Automatic annotation (TrEMBL):
It catalyses: epoxyqueuosine(34) in tRNA + AH2 = queuosine(34) in tRNA + A + H2O. It comes from the Bacteria. Catalyzes the conversion of epoxyqueuosine (oQ) to queuosine (Q), which is a hypermodified base found in the wobble positions of tRNA(Asp), tRNA(Asn), tRNA(His) and tRNA(Tyr). Residues 185-217 form the 4Fe-4S ferredoxin-type domain. Its EC number is 1.17.99.6. The keyword 4Fe-4S applies. InterPro entries: 4Fe4S_Fe-S-bd (IPR017896), 4Fe4S_Fe_S_CS (IPR017900), QueG (IPR004453), QueG_DUF1730 (IPR013542). The active site is at D143 (proton donor). It comes from Ectothiorhodosinus mongolicus. This is Epoxyqueuosine reductase. GO terms for cellular component: cytoplasm. Keywords: 4Fe-4S, Cobalamin, Cobalt, Cytoplasm, Iron, Iron-sulfur, Metal-binding, Oxidoreductase, Queuosine biosynthesis, tRNA processing. Cob(II)alamin binds at R65, D143, L167, L178, S225, C250, D251.
Amino acid sequence: MQHAHNTQDMQALAEQIRQWGRELGFDAVGFCDTDLSAHEQHLLNWLDQGRHGDMQYMARHGTKRSRPEELIPGTLRIISLRMQYFPTAAREPWSVIEDSELAFVSRYALGRDYHKLMRQRLQQLADRIEAVVGPFGYRAFVDSGPVLEKALAEKAGLGWIGKHTNLLSREWGSWFFLGELFTDLPLPLDPAGTEHCGTCNACIEICPTQAIVAPFELDARRCISYLTIENRGSIPEALRPMMGNRIYGCDDCQLVCPWNRRAKLGVEPSFQARHGLDDVALIDLFAWDEATFLKRTEGSAIRRIGHECWLRNIAVALGNAPSTPAVIAALRSRQDHPSELVREHVAWALARHEASADAHSGASSGPDSGTAQASG
């Protein structure tokens, strides 16, 4: 619904929206228009090169992803919002990555699923706006629908897209979720974020699978986050040894980023680690049956991959773990799993331990492939 709004009203409303956003737990709110032409070519090139892998949804909507006004007709502005998630009470990430008997879960997935929480907060924000301006056109997105959320956040001044292709802020680093309200209100525009990566290539150099193929260019097909979450099939054998103990996502490029050393950290209690997933042995997680998996991942983003991919990912990590009797026994317990996908990855892991035993010459480290990264 379109209304006549004067500039002064919109300026005051924008400040009010920022205030409400902070009250609802967002650490920043920005406003931009719908012109993403500068990002559209980057998206089309990425798709042409097949770097989206099996994420067919990235290509399905044509230019609607880079043209918000085509996706939701009548959209004039996007309200872009950021919410910090780093679980401050969780075990220090590098100490987990460097212990190949433990399971590493990406920091964003240790707490409650952000989709529902942020969507509720965005709805509360829309309700507050409506109470002031009356009925207006809007649609909320949280990592849903064909939306270039990082491009919109950069345009709305919430930060810049770093060399690792994540959004970065000088104050807050990159440990945050993004959400959007597409709206027909002619809100004032914020200046776009400017890039501050400089000559730093830390994220490119540390990536375990060399998925950051050039500054600002990610090949999702090599990315551990893609391989363990989006990919539902077999993980390419050449990449398995590089994955180390990362069973759900990967944070190396964020952990090594200098901007995250000084980042303010989040206080949203919902994102603190649950069920001890920040400090747990691979063999313990591999023992979960499907009922246990569903119970322990209730309200978590992890549940979306399903039990089969969960076991697939852990089998790879156990293949990279030290050759202990407990690790071998755990793998053998799933040798005859009903899923061909699980059986294939278990067989690979066992073969890796057998090859290591054959080549054993006094060392006791097993097939650990040296993928654990130093924190400096």
